[in-house]
Design a protein that fits this description.
The chain is α/β, with parallel strands linked by helices. The chain is built from six helices and 14 strands. It has one domain: Ribonuclease Z/Hydroxyacylglutathione hydrolase-like (Metallo-beta-lactamase, Chain A, 4-Layer Sandwich). Strands 6-5-4-3-2-1-14 form a seven-stranded mixed beta sheet. A hairpin with a 2-residue loop joins strand 7 and strand 8. It is globular, with a radius of gyration of 17 Å.
């Protein structure tokens, strides 16, 4: 299974990275709809598209307004946007208010309840995360492979979500701050490098990829990769256009 990283920055894009957007082209699944969502069009392989939103902050949903260009001259049978019911309602009421975005989007809206759901051939498990306004991560399972996406939360090895991601083949986890910026991480609901690596080790995942970096740092390594690898060696930095196999 291929996972494409279409946006790996947090808060706003910079010259190196767009904001949060991941895609599983073979399944027609996109996770989050940040500014990187404009890249979805060139990777479409399926007649359906399922978008899983983690929450309704703008850096994760503004790309929904790009759907009209995504489907331009494409015949998709169905587009469904999934997420927490309250977050979907907020997106529809505010981001898609007629005064801001007057064109209707060609999609259905599907609230996700607790437990698992079958989406495009994957068993999808929403994972509650602590973040201002609330957020969810996702675990996706197929026969013989698994993947988890955890963004916009403050990582800790004793967090409740660790059990939900245990043993996945690939964990993609936000890492907005370097070590030493823990006060900002707690204040904003984000994570620091060593804490994320400790989560990966505690959860016994096979591989960890970091993203959702501070956009004010557009360097190649905004979070000190060696610090993460000292705790969990199988760690890599995500970048826009990265292709991962799991």
């Amino acid at each position: 299974m291929q996972l494409l990283l279409l946006g790996t920055a947090g808060y706003h894009p910079n010259e190196r990275r767009q904001t949060a957007c991941l895609m599983l082209p073979e399944a027609g699944i996109v996770l989050d709809a940040g500014t990187g969502f404009f890249r979805v069009r060139e990777h479409l392989q399926t007649p359906t598209l399922d978008v899983l939103l983690t929450h309704a902050h703008l850096d994760h949903v503004v790309g929904l307004t790009y759907l009209l260009s995504t489907v331009w001259e494409r015949k998709l049978e169905r587009i469904t946007v999934h997420g927490d019911a309250a977050k979907l309602a907020a997106v529809r009421e505010h981001l898609l208010a007629a005064e801001l975005f007057p064109a209707p989007l060609p999609c259905d809206w599907q609230p996700l309840s607790a437990g698992t759901a079958e989406i495009a051939g994957a068993r999808v498990t929403p994972i509650a995360l602590a973040h201002p306004g609330g957020s969810v991560g996702y675990r996706l399972d197929w026969p013989g492979r698994s993947f988890a996406y955890v963004t916009d939360t403050t990582a800790a090895a004793d967090s409740a979500y660790v059990a939900a991601i245990r043993g996945v083949d690939l964990l993609v986890h936000e890492c907005n701050f370097r070590d030493g910026q823990e006060a900002w991480a707690m204040k904003t609901g984000h994570s620091c490098t060593s804490a994320v690596a400790a989560v990966a080790r505690q959860a016994a995942v096979r591989r960890l990829v970091l993203l959702h970096f501070n956009p004010l740092d557009d360097s190649h390594d905004p979070v000190d990769l060696p610090a993460a690898r000292a705790i969990f060696p199988a760690t890599d930095l995500g970048f826009d256009g990265m292709s991962l196999e799991f």
